[in-house]
Amino acid sequence: MMKKLPVLLTPYIKTRYPYRKLKICRRCNHFTVLGEADCPVCGHAALQNVEKRAASMLQRSMWKDWFVVLLIMLVGIALSESTKQTILFVAGSLLLLALLWTIQRRTKFALLHVQLEKLFQNEAYALCNGLVKDREAAIKVFESGNKPLAYEMLREIGALVHTDQLRIEQILLLQSFVLRKDMDLMLDPLLMNHFNSDLVEYIGELAKIRRDLLKENAFRYILLHEAQILKMEHGESILIGVAGAVVRMKRYITLYPHLLLRYARKLPKDRFLRLYRMIQSSQTANNGPLYEEVMTIYNEKYKWDEDFQRDNR
Predict the structure, then answer these.
(1) Does 22 map to a domain?
(2) Superkingdom of the source (predicted)?
(3) Residue range 164-182: average pLDDT?
(4) Which pLDDT belongs to residue 87?
(5) What is the DSSP string of 64-82?
(6) Which single residue of 122, 150, 184, 244 has CA 20 to 30 Å from 309?
(7) Distance between CA 137 and CA 145 in Å, rounded?
(8) What is the percentage of the chain residues whose pLDDT exceeds 70?
(9) Is the pLDDT of residue 149 over 90?
(10) Considering the domain boundaries, does residue 49 fall inside one?
């Protein structure tokens, strides 16, 4: 059995949009999610956020629009045949400038997104190549023996690259660490469509130390692959742990009663006590197979237990 490493992981900084982690070099146009200041390709301190690059491109585009309007105004003034025509043309041009400024100001956020899309489309090859080089850099760090840093690098890349291969690499690294409750861990970004035993074992670990990370996507994944999980060496224990995580919220109990029906009898006492209390306090749950199963288990195993008796007083 592989010895797990005690590690400290840097907290993951979340952004509203994943692309905000992406940087581009002003000199060589290299994309990366790993660099802080120095470009990993040309070595210059020339990395800038892609939004900043898009904002600069947008600003130039706006100035071009202003230049065109001013040029038209100057040509109109030069061709005016009277003072009245000049005044009218200047007034019209100033009105057009004011309208242009208002439109630009009100649509700046939308225009910035359009500019970002153009940047990503025009630099699609450079973007893909940059992310590939980031992964290669993470693999080199792993091969050097620095597994925590390699995981953190892959985690950053994973914000933009959604492939099962990258997910598996992160899970395998996580499974080589001693996982603790205080760690900044994640689950939803690592879920896959197909069955993966390493992912299931990771979910089982989280069911012990971070039940809050198990949400609807994780429960659906477990239910979908329940038969295969049961064939694993500790598959049933993992399913019992996941069932214990379902008990965390009434909503989950309502959505996944069949998972609880199958494993309620094997839940640890504290998780069954929580399930019992939530079933008893729910007006809508006091009927149906799950309620009957919970009451059967209660009568067989816990009817005279002091913790349960306290609830019935």
Answers:
(1) yes
(2) Bacteria
(3) 94
(4) 73
(5) HHHHHHHHHHHHHHHH-SS
(6) 244
(7) 13
(8) 94
(9) yes
(10) yes
* CA 177/CA 171 separation, integer angstroms: 10
The CA dihedral of 61, 66, 68, 70, to the nearest 10 degrees, is -160
Give the bridge partners for 49, in sequence order: 23
pLDDT band at 1 (very low <50, low <70, confident <90, very high): low
Using CA atoms, how far residue 30 sits from 73, 222, 296, in Å, is 41, 40, 64
Do 149 and 141 meet the contact criterion of CB atoms below 8 Å apart? Answer: yes
- The separation between CA 106 and the C-alpha centre of its own chain, rounded to angstroms, equals 30
Residue carrying the six token digits 């690259």: 161
In a domain, 135, yes or no: yes
Q: Compute how many other C-beta atoms are within 10 angstroms of the C-beta atom of residue 9.
A: 18
What is the DSSP-derived secondary structure letter of residue 175? T
Q: Residue 223 is encoded by which pair of tokens?
A: 């239910």
Tell me which amino acid residue 185 is.
L
- Copy the structure tokens of residue 67: 């230049």
Residue 225 covered by a domain: no
Model pTM greater than 0.90? Answer: no
Q: What's the total number of domains in the chain?
A: 1
CA pair distance 171, 186, nearest whole angstrom: 10
* Span 148-162, average pLDDT: 93
Q: Give the domain extent around 94.
A: 1-179
List C-alpha distances in Å: 4 to 1, 95, 121, 252.
9, 70, 43, 32
Q: Which two tokens stand for residue 302?
A: 């816990």
